[in-house]
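Why predict the complex rather than its parts? Because the way molecules touch one another can change local conformation, and only a joint prediction can capture that. The input here totals 537 residues.
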Amino acid sequence: MKPVFSVILFTVSSGAGLGLLALLVLADLAVGEPGIITLLLGGALAMALVTIGLVSSTFHLANPKNAWRAVSQFKRSWLSREGVFALLLYPAALAYFAATWLDWSLAARTALGLATVLLAWATLFCTGMIYACLKTIPRWYSPLVPLNYVLLGHFSGALLFAALMVLEGGAGPALVGLALALLVLAGIGKLAYFLKFRAHPGRHTLAGAIGMTAARAKLLDAGHSHGTFLTNEFGFRVARDRAVALRWLFFVASFAIPVVVLLFSPVAAPLAALVCLGGLMIERWLFFAEAQHVVRLYHGQVRV
Amino acid sequence: MKLGLVIDLDTCVGCHACAVACKEWNGASAISGPLSDYQPYGAEPSGVWFNRIRHYEVGDYPANKTLNVPMSCMHCEDADCVTVCPTGASYKRDDGIVLVDQDKCMGCNYCSWACPYGARELDESSGTMKKCTLCVDRIYDELLPPEDRQPACVLACPAHARMFGDLDDPGSAVSKVVREREGFGMLPELGYKPVNRYLPPRKPPEIPVDRSPAPRTSLAEKLKAWASLAVSR
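Output of the joint prediction:
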């Protein structure tokens, strides 16, 4: 699949924003930390990241004037569900932060906070399901995809949370522990994803795709002299060496450097968060670049 | 109703006339036309097509064969392209035809990701997704003579390799030929229940060859035969 920058930025940015938002609200409800200024700054940062993501996602639309219709198919489309949850998140989160600022009753704050957290989780899960519901792309049709979206969103959100805590003299041991736990879970999830599809030969074959299951088949002529929408959208290739190198870069940037920073110098958390987000951009680029659509069979690829 | 196409892979000669006729009719149609071309006279011509024909070699020599495979929308019974569409632009009609409402599409490409057959193509000029309409503006047009109420591709095919009809009706001509020739749908394992059917190539009739063992001949006769070949006059 062709990696599109606007979609990569969208999923990384809103993923981190949603993770940060959920963790902030949970921390505030559970232990009454962080302080009100940090909480509001964090909320603003989270909503800014979500907004950057949502705005960015409209840049890949060829006809954005109809984008408002994208919330109309909640019953059947994961993309529509994501849009609805993301839009509902704004009033819920704003109301929660207003309630905290104005010191409303605990019951009201708890209700608004839980609504915010549930909506953030629902939005993250829907983002993953947009990809994981496509049977046409075997590498995406896996429960690991939404799991990794949720885990990576929360892990990068926890790093941003730790970065914010520099305002209050650095993240406490509880937050560092939480960030490390999320780091380990997200690392295992991503490792499982890479291992699952390592040297995966693919179960769909060219011969099977044209109904000639008993014989070998190969493409003689694709019938067009230059690129088509299909070759442009689905024909992207990444060299195996480059993909492996990028995986290492992702693991170092998103996991190894944050581990060192969290363990030895939580004050440098803002730097670790930035490096981690950079690594996640690489991860998301690979997520697209390595995914192969079954229509490639008809264009001559023997297995997908 | 399950309106769809039946394509005979045995008789298709791969001439692309169906694709050209499709482009001609639908390019001028109000349903989703025009079908934009990019650099039509330039260095890298490309454009929107509803129907593409690809050519394959099947089997190993000497049992190999060229297979011409035209592909357009299969009008799936369980069309995932319709399910994933966030705007409601993609829809399936009661007669089985899958269409895109050009006034609602936002051009997100998501439906084209959901389609395994490459049947949907984004038109960069309008920014909307376009696809085979099964010539919905021909097949119900009562101003046309009844024999012309068929998709343009079917009418254009010089080899009569394309048939149109209701695949839900077991008595229809298309259903009968699918039964007789064991027609199949593509990528059934994905579960989208494509309606269009492909008729596999027939086994070519074997060329008769005398395979009876050569009659036994004596050594003297063999020598005589050799001598009459080796010695001239």
